[in-house]
Amino acid sequence: MPLALLALAIGAFGIGTTEFVIMGLLPEIADDFGVSIPTAGFLVTGYALGVLFGAPLMTALGTRISRKRMLMLLMGLFIVGNLLSAAAPAFGVMLIGRVVASLAHGAFFGIGSVVAADLVAPDKKAGAIAMMFTGLTVANVVGVPLGTLVGQSIGWRVTFAVVAALGVIGLAGIARLVPEMPRPQGVRLRHELAAFKNAQVLLAMAMTVLGFGGVFAAITYIAPMMTHVAGFADGSVTWLLVLFGLGMVGGNLIGGRYADRALMPMLYVSLGALAVVLALFTLTAHHKVLAAVTIALIGALGFATVPPLQKRVLDQAHGAPTLASAVNIGAFNLGNALSAWLGGLVIAAGLGYTAPNWVGAALAAGALLLAVASAALERRDNARDGSTPAVTASPSAERQAAVQH
Fold first, then answer.
1. What domains lie within the chain, and their CATH numbers?
2. 189, pLDDT greater than 70
3. CA pair distance 18, 286, nearest whole angstrom
4. What is the pTM of this model?
5. Distance between CA atoms of residues 323 and 392, nearest Å
6. What DSSP letter does each residue of 97-144 carry, written as one string?
């Protein structure tokens, strides 16, 4: 794998850390600014909304410059947002800093996916995408626990200053290691928007919303579920989330490897198994060891869908995939918000802390049905056209192949 993927992974590590570390630091931040915990929770909501709306906005604004330069600008925006959060004199200023940092999130992963795929041969694209996303998954294992520890021990402002420093390292790596990759000739914003007329692109995004939404339906309420149902101590939640993060790392790498060999079968297996494991979690949540194993499996199966879904969008939006790729990152966050809301509804209805697992299982099963429908539609279209499915090389890959030839 090219060293450029390491630079992308470092940027992803910083972004993943700043996204999730806030959850462990809410009490300290609320006390510092003199606001309630629910009010401090707007720092989480604001970030998620910034990702959802910032992904298409920032990608659209960057259609006239090279992808490398856009990635560098996004990392600069990320650095500014985290420095603003670290130095915020008031809660409102910190909220602005969180939103500024979030604007870089979706576009970075969307454009980064395209760049990562263009750096390698056509049969290694999903693996390259997975390598970039490894930074995000490792952030949940290393960055978030360490960031929380630093914030609780030294101060939350130090945590965000360190995250900004990670952004500087990522920016330097992109500037040094990522090759210049000019935007494809003749591709304008209208071409990027035209990708959304493709039913397969929309189906892949819907699978993203439902599939990863299934994961967050359970994980959002993991703390009360494990302490009130499984009987874990409050302090155990941290290492349970580390298990979840380790599962994410393994699932991401496996998903990237096998998606390059058989993308749709990989989705069938991961989504189907995810639905089953989430349903079983309503039972295993009552046993400490089984609950811990299940949490790791949810992380693995959930993130095993990420590289194939991202590659599916790139394949179906070939020629002008950048905006569709970024919007698909926003779809992950839409799924997170939707599933957390639905999970809260079933708990509020008095169905218990394990009820969100059924919600997650239903969402994952819905994603599996969409995958089956997508494949059936593709077979029908291929039969009608008298063609067979083919992996479409990106313009950059075609140019590289021509040079090698």
1. 1-183 (1.20.1250.20), 187-405 (1.20.1250.20)
2. no
3. 32
4. 0.76
5. 17
6. HHHHHHHHHHHHHHHHHHHHHHTS-GGGHHHHHHHHHHHHHHIIIIIH
Closest CA to 366 of 236, 239, 212, 233: 212
Altogether, the residues listed in the chain come to a count of 405
**One-letter identity of residue 352:** G
One-letter amino acid of 252? N
Residue 86 phi, psi dihedral angles, 5° rounding? -65, -35
- Whether the predicted pLDDT of 321 surpasses 70: no
User: How high is the pLDDT of residue 191?
Assistant: 63
